[in-house]
Amino acid sequence: MSNATIEQYYFGQGRLWSRPYGSSNPADWRWWGDISQLDVAGETENIEHKESYSGQRNKVRSISLGSSMTITGTLHQVDTLALAELLYGAASEIASAAITGEPLGTVEVGDMIRLDNPGVSSLEITDSAVTPVTLAPEHYVLDADFGVIEIVSLPATAPTWPLKASYQAAGGKQVNFFTQPQPNLELKYEGVNLAENMAPVQVHFYKVATQPLQGLALIQNGNELAGNQFTLDVLSDTAKPMSGPLGRMGRFIQVARAAP
Q: Are residue 198 and residue 160 in the same domain, yes or no?
């Protein structure tokens, strides 16, 4: 039998998927979107002893007390589901709503008024007279996306204060921050090795804990898209047998291609 080493190189691209730890529902797997860097690092915690009889203080024992693995990556996907997992939040839908009589107070020309809701349409601004007077559109400029009203003029006859706004709010999606326990996830990386004719590779981590997102880049300069750094701690899945063939932390699979 030949002992010659067959060269195997690696240049990877692929997708990262997760679902809540303990889920058995195949539909729960969620793709994390574009990740430009994904690394796995392992380390051990050791007790080391140096002998004290030779004068050389040579190391004679290194005893492993345990091992750990971390996953680090650069995520370009920014959505409420990703942020919920990485900022310990809860994602939810904001329902569209008809807003009536939202008070704007007493305003002056040049004031920038922020409504309680973004995504504004069908805006109507009235005063508080018994028979309300409606401001003409030439008296203000609306930034509909963010619900910001700039007052550019006022009617010749002073309005009865306060002004009030009625409009349709479009709703959207939202995530709050640090309202949930630290998530535990099951993780799968599915990639291809460009250095070996697009050979398929899968890495399966049975249980990971997310660390808080290390940065959420909101303003960019230069010519690159935002990349947000994340870290995951690989945990031992004690639901699996200690001596099982799959281990308790994860496995790397060189997928055999099916015969055509």
A: no
Residues 205 and 147 in one domain: no
| Kind plus residue range of the DSSP H or E element containing 81 | helix 80-86
Q: pTM of the predicted model, to two decimals?
A: 0.83
Separation in Å, CA 202 to CA 14, 57, 168, 187, 241: 9, 45, 48, 10, 21
Task: Count Cβ atoms within 10 A of the Cβ of residue 174 and give its class: 0-12 exposed, 13-18 middle, 19 or more buried.
Answer: middle
Domain span at residue 165 reads 96-170
pLDDT score at 242: 84
Query: Cβ-count burial of 48 within 10 angstroms (0-12 exposed, 13-18 middle, 19+ buried)?
Result: exposed
Looking at the structure, tell me whether residues 80 and 182 fall in a common domain: yes
- The whole-number pLDDT of residue 1 equals 57
Tell me the CA distances in angstroms from 52 to 57, 60, 62, one per residue in order: 6, 10, 15
Q: What's the structural domain count of the chain?
A: 2
Which residues of the chain are under the pLDDT cut of 50? Answer: none
